[in-house]
Amino acid sequence: MQVLSHFPLTNLNTFGLEAEARYYARVTSAGELTSLLRDARWKDFPKFVLGGGSNVLLTRDINALVIQPDIRGIEAVKETNETVWLKAGAGEGWHSFVMYCVNHNLAGIENLSLIPGTVGAAPMQNIGAYGVEVKDVIETVEAVSLDSGELRIFSASECRFGYRESIFKHELKDRYIITAATFRLSRKPEFHVEYGDIQKTLETMGVTELSLKAVSEAVMHIRRSKLPDPAVIGNAGSFFKNPEITREDYEKSKALFPDMPGYPLENGNVKVPAGWLIEKAGWKGYREGAIGVHERQALVLVNYGGGRGEDLIALSRKIQSSVKQQFGIQLNAEVNLV
Question: Per the database record, which ranges form the FAD-binding PCMH-type domain (predicted)?
Fold first, then answer.
């Protein structure tokens, strides 16, 4: 393992923003990570964890030891007639892991196809799409303490999952590095096709018999039709969370904006699509030099090339202010701002 100085991070974040790490290390095992953290040279030096770079907005150089956990491997750690528990390294690409499950007829995450990032980022963000959240299938999360270098195994309940939230984004933020996660997959699929355009897309595809592959391909088709490829246009997917408001506030807004969509939640509140709010506020397709709002999906902020992180933050704040003024609803960023 090498520790490199003044390492460029432009190719390690999907916005393609220019930034530099004072020091950078790529670790390929939990043991290697522990050795690095216990090295006297880095004991008291600030540290920053960078996974796939698909959910981060860099606004500056990182004056720290940037650690990238590139820990690979997928293995079945337990099996029954109905369930398989798969342990995957934090450095595995999330979509590649989904495809592994689909190809092995293991159900539970097919609706999460084509989400960018790594396995390690999935529990941190509690990623979700089309009626499924990763918390629904996570059994345990393994993470190493930045202070002691010790490995700890968190149960799903200990992770305190919420909507795009986990304990790793709050109480334990910057205190642990996720090295692996174990997922509980089913040999007997329960398909979730009632969300978004999945059912309609399946019909267009001519699918008459549901399968994991068919659902996955439908999700990928929808995502590709709406979301830009980060390899072509710099972006981090959905920039904002879908806001949750009270039923009373939703009814008031619905009276003013009859076409406002809303999805009832178990707690009695209503989730409103952030993309709809941003588009209605007139931001879809907006461009300001090298940055802007994607022309097909208002929820996605983009860097066309040469943009700066601080300009993207400024644009996001303009959008928040505009939506708040027009609808009285506060948007919060899903992307981590650095």
Answer: 15-188
| Domain span(s) for CATH 3.30.465.10 in the chain | 74-186
User: Six-digit token pair at 333?
Assistant: 């960023």
State the catalytic residue, choosing from 133, 139, 142, 334: 334
Q: What type of residue sits at position 225?
A: S
* From 26, 164, 223, 308, active-site residue: 164
Fold of 3-69: 3.30.43
Instruction: List all residues 6 or more positions away from 198 whose beta carbon is below 8 Å from its beta carbon.
Output: 111, 130, 192, 215, 218, 219, 222
Q: Could you report the per-residue pLDDT of 30-88, keeping only the tens digit for each? A: 999 999 999 999 988 999 999 888 889 999 999 999 999 999 999 999 999 999 999 99
CATH 3.30.43.10 maps onto the chain at 3-69
d(CA 265, CA 262): 9
pLDDT tens across 245-289, in order?
Answer: 999 999 999 999 999 999 898 889 999 999 999 999 999 999 999
Among residues 230, 290, 174, the alpha carbon closest in space to that of 55 is found at 230
Helix axes 94-103, 212-226, angle to 10 degrees: 150
Sorted by sequence, the CB contacts under 8 Å of residue 166 that are 6+ apart come out as: 123, 124, 125, 126, 159, 160
Which residue from 325, 315, 227 is spatially nearest to 281, judged by alpha carbons?
325
**Among 54, 113, 216, 238, the one annotated catalytic:** 238
- What are the CB-based long-range contacts (under 8 Å, 24+) for 38-45? 38/149, 42/3
Q: Is 238 a catalytic residue?
A: yes
> May I ask the CATH architecture of the domain 74-186?
2-Layer Sandwich (3.30)
- Specify the domain boundaries for CATH 3.90.78.10 within the chain: 234-337
State pTM to two decimals: 0.85
Q: How is domain 234-337 classified at the CATH fold level?
A: 3.90.78
Question: Is 164 a catalytic site residue?
Answer: yes
